[in-house]
Amino acid sequence: METQPSPSRRQVLKGLAVLGGVAAVGGGAAVVWQILSSPDRKTAPSDPTSLEGLAGAVVSGGPGKDGIPAIDRPRFVSAAGADFLTGDQPVFGLDYGGEIRAYPQLVLVWHEIVNDAVGDQLLSITYCPLTGTAVGYHSPPGQKLTFGTTGNLVNSNLLMYDRQTDSQWLQILGTAITGPLKGNRLSTEPLVWTTWNAWRNAHPNTKVLSADTGFLRSYGTDPYGSYPRRSGYYASGEPIFPVQARDHRFAAKDVVVGVRAGDGRLAIHKDHLRRVQAIETQSGGTRVRAHWDNQLDTALVEQQVEGRWEAADYLDAMWFAWYAFYPHTEVLP
After folding, report:
1. How far apart (Å, rounded) are the C-alpha atoms in residues 174 and 185?
2. How much is the pTM?
3. What is the pLDDT of residues 283-296, one digit of tens each?
C-alpha cells in the first residue's frame, strides 16, 4: 500500500491553477474476450473495501460540509437555450422514465450533486471530478433521501451525506459507510458520458440543466483542467489524495468502463472498447456485453438476466479509482 500526504482541496486547486496551462453492441459481431488475470493482485491490501476499512480511510478534501453546495432546485432549459455550452463540452446524459436530460460537466464540477426528480421519484445526479465518476442514484424503497457533500474523500472519491439520517455514502459505490444506514446500497441509474454536440444530435428535444443555479460560480471554467483540451488534472499524473491500493497496468488517469454484474467486477479500458467496438464476456458468472456507440461516442453495457439483455450497472472511472475500490477487479484487455 502506498501512502501520501493529504493536501487540502484548496492547495490542490491552487496547484492545478498553476499546472493547468502546462499539462497539457453494435455494428458487427461481438468479440468474445478472455479476461486477463491480475499480475500483481498481491499488492492490494487484504480487505481495503470493508465498510470499516473505508471509514478509516476518510481524509479531508479541504472544503467543509456543504462547502461544495449541491443543487436542490435544478432549473432546465431547452437545447436551443443551452447557449452556455460548446459542442465539445462533456455532458452526462439521462434517459429514464421518458425523460431525456443533459447535466453539463461544467456545472456539476462546481456542485458535484444535483438532487433532482423524475415524476415523483427522487434521482440524485452525482459527479466526482477527482475520480471522473458520474452516477445517478435512486433513494432506497420507502425513503426519500437528498444528499450533500461532506468535504471529505476516500480514495479521492466524494463522500456524500444524506440529510435525512446523516449517514455518509461513497459516491462511486453508492454505499453508506457510517451512520444509521451503514451497509445500505443505493440503486443506480446509468448516465451516458458524452459531448453536448453528440447528445443534442441524438436527442434534439433534451432538457439541459441550466447554469442558473442560484449560486455565483465561474461556469465555463474548470478548476481542475479541461476535458475538451484534455489538460490539467484530467490529462495525466498521479492521484493527489491517498488511495488504499494501486495498480500500474494502466496510467492512473486512463478511463475504464467499470461494470458491476452480479458478484463480478470488470474494468474495460475505454480506448480499447472504442477500437474493437464490441466485447462479450462473463463476469462473476453473468454474461456481459459492451459496445461502442459511435453516435454518442461512448460505451454502453448490458448484462444477461434470465435470458434477457438489460442495462448493466456501469460507469466511467479513472483507473486508479476503480482499482482502489475494486482491487480484485477483472480487467480487459
Report:
1. 5
2. 0.87
3. 999 999 999 999 99
